Amino acid sequence: MIRRLLLSLAVLGAAPIAAAQPVAIHGETVWTGTSQGTLTNGVVVINNGRIVSVGPEGSAVPAGATEVRAKWVTPGLIAAFSRVGLSEVSGVAPTNDGGAAGSAFSAALDAGDGFNPDASSVPITRLEGFTRIVVAPEARSKLFGGQGFVADTSGLPGSIFKPKAFAFVVLGEEGANRSGGSRTAAWAAIRGAFDDVRFFGARFMAHNEGNVLTRMDAQALMPAVRGEQMILFQASKASDIEAILDFKEQNPTLKIAIVGADEAWRVSGRLAEAGVPVIIDAFSNLPGSFQQLASTGENARRLSEAGVTVAIAHLDSPGHQARLATQVAGNAVAHGMDFDAALAALTVTPARIFGLTGLGSLAPGNRADVIAWDGDPLEVTSAPTAVYIDGEAQPMETRQTKLRDRYLNLDESERPLAYKH
């Protein structure tokens, strides 16, 4: 907030105000996400929105710095896939801007236009240690869902700091359904859409008609087709992932990632060779559909050991429960994934996939997204005790905590039945 206020004052020509005091966050364990590794009894110093130093206890701390002590200290977590802030009540259409089933447009739909930083899910996500969220639209009528973005969880206006970060495309059973009923129709639509972009002049300047896309959709998809913007494909089945990799080989300049990827372990060697990252949910370990028959709790471990770039997210109810990704990562560790790899899958790796420079790790010069924890971040009983976004301490309350405190502070006779001891 102070950083944004300073910027506003500078624009208005007002005299600058004093910057916030530096903060020293001491941790019994400090997980840096860098070659510095994990420090026992370390301290992270932040000032003016940036990390100043990361070192062992006893390192120099600026005079007057606010001292914070914690069991664990980590970088701010990044929700690698979510729909946080796009809906308040998923089942109530007027509050839900995740997708547009009745729209004539697809790739041109910008999820950022529907983002509400005041949504109750934003502080709930922040309170669990997530300082940044990757937000994807829903594909409700066509396989092109639209444009996704990256935002911070401060809840402030202007929280979207990377608009149109990727184009979102659904394949598999959902993509087939959105394209007319089969995977063959879905791939015909993708190839037709790419042709609409590549021959934009001929199709839209001369005839104003594309095979698949409207003029606005074709214009919106141009950066992705040119390899200037990531395409995030949703797919689960091994054969669907193989088809995406085939498409990537035919179009080598494309930048792609795959979300879902329940059967990705079956094609891990090819994914690693192609350098295509995946965003998975380690809770997905049951054959819930025909495209998930080979799902396993060991998916994360097998992919990671094969050299695939793996980010972890909670993909079930991503609009309201993205915060559960820490439990998902803990589940991956329980099924054999290396602990450091699992924590990196919530921090370093999403930052790398989405090009979030200066985020996802604790290093001098990085943006000061830092979390102080009361225990191991991947343990279900642990919780943050302090959250910093760009060096600014965040409120540690939500609508849920306010309701809790409201009713717990009542006399026993006044409490609702659910709150009585």
Overview of the structural elements:
With 421 residues, the chain is α/β, with parallel strands linked by helices. Helix content is 28%, strand content 23%. It contains 13 helices and 15 strands. An 8-stranded mixed sheet has the order 5-6-7-8-9-10-11-12. Strands 3-2-1-4-13-14-15 form a 7-stranded mixed sheet, with no helix packed on it. A hairpin with a 6-residue loop joins strand 1 and strand 2. The longest helix has 16 residues. The two termini are 40 Å apart.
What's the gist of this structure?
By secondary structure, the protein is of the alpha/beta class. Helices cover 28% and strands 23% of the residues.
Order of strands across the widest beta sheet? 5-6-7-8-9-10-11-12
The tally of helices reads 13
- What best-fitting shape do the alpha-carbon axes yield? globular
Mean pLDDT across residues: 91
**Residue fraction in strands:** 15-25%
The end-to-end distance, rounded to whole angstroms, is 40 Å
What are the low-pLDDT stretches, counting only 5+ consecutive residues below 50? 5-19
Assembly state (oligomeric): single chain
Which series of helices and strands comes N to C?
HEEEEEHEEEHHHHEHEHEHEHHHEEEH
| Largest beta-sheet details | 8 strands, mixed
Residue share in helix: 25-40%
The total beta strand count reads: 15
